[in-house]
Amino acid sequence: MLxxxxxxxxxxxQLGRGLRKIDNKDYLTVIxxxxxxxxxxxxxxxxxxxxxxxxxxxxxxxxxxSALIPGSSTINFDKxxxxxxxxxxxxxxxxxxxDLVKDYxxxxxxxxxxxxxxxxxxxxxxxxxxxxxxxxSYFNFVTSQEPDLKTKLDAQQIKLIELFSNExxxxxxxxxxxxxxxxxxxQHLTTLEFKELIYQKYDYLPSQETIDSCINNLNFxxxxxxxxxxxxKVCEIYxxxxxxxxxxxISISEGLKNNISNPTFKTYLLDNISYAVKTFNAQFLKEKxxxxxxxxxxxxxxxxxxxxxxxxxxxAQNVGGYIISSDKSxxxxxxxxxxxxxxxxxxxxxxxxxxxSEFEWMSKSKRTLTSPDVLTIxxxxxxxxxxxxxxxxxxEGTEFYYMGDVTPIDNTFEQxxxxxxxxxxxxxxxxxxxxxxxxxxxxxEYITNDHNNK
Length: 454
Known about the structure:
41% of the residues lie in helices and 16% in strands. It is α+β, with helices and mostly antiparallel strands. It folds into three domains: 8-91, no CATH class; 97-285, no CATH class; 289-448, Roll (PUA domain-like).
């Protein structure tokens, strides 16, 4: 390799010249003279044909080895190579403005018209959620490229599109998106009709608590923003009402009805919903679906609380590594597996897998066997759900892999100590959890292997 490139297409062309077949040619040695390894994230893009630039998708492709390689080809990555590719994926900026613009213009030229989010999916292009991450909504990005569109929506409609794009239609829970889609189409429906639709499409029945949570989320009662130096529900800040519910009857609000009378607003909202539905469907596996979560999909803390039907997204400082719901029905656990050295001693919890079926975990510091949260976890048989979320390290961002629900092993509760920053010891409780679903080898090896400490 003598030519640096950040293009997956050119990378494949360069590699492809060496891979041409000829008699008596048994293997290929690639010598990289110019540091293409800095762009190692291009390896899964090139070899697997995934041009979404979705980091999680690229990680899963590398972890899969040959399983997802198209055709009859096979590939084996040695440990050092695989680790360097993971490092490159972690550090790469996958949503540079110039790359977003370039891919948009390419697809626009290909289609002969302004592309929508769903077009990126159907044409195997960049994950359009990257535009949402950068511009708060895909509509906002398009207006940066198509100035004539700027006057089509008023300020509240622009804010609504942003809220729907980030808080509802991120493809992590399908109920809100489908309910919104049905209400735009039919104006009203019953909870029974909605449950039947979910059952027909996904073979499970959403609970009444989930439906109530969806309505709360659609009305933006779950998410908060800083308003006048105070965290306030978004619905209160912007005086929003999207969905009405009376008994078993669900209907669209007059406010949303007025907004969707604007054809531009309706077009971009329906496109955003279609993106969410199509993306969720592509990643939904019934055999891996566990009460709202899909095994080994990534979720933010906010996603987790929304799917667990919390009324309001809790303050981050109140969560830490775990938090028990007010009704003691669930306690999501969040673990950063390979912790940084510069964090405080009282957050250097010794959490880790013993094997694919057992996970050793530590409570928050200054806890004893009689602390209320420890007692609640110990009394899990009263109906406490314990979903476990893990990210490999902070380089992966703010999302965690859902590893399944866990069950405490009764005789493993042990009160011990850990060092504090002042040199003293503070109490902590150590617990061993049994994984309700044994962790698959590929994700187990990926998470447990610390490629930063070779």
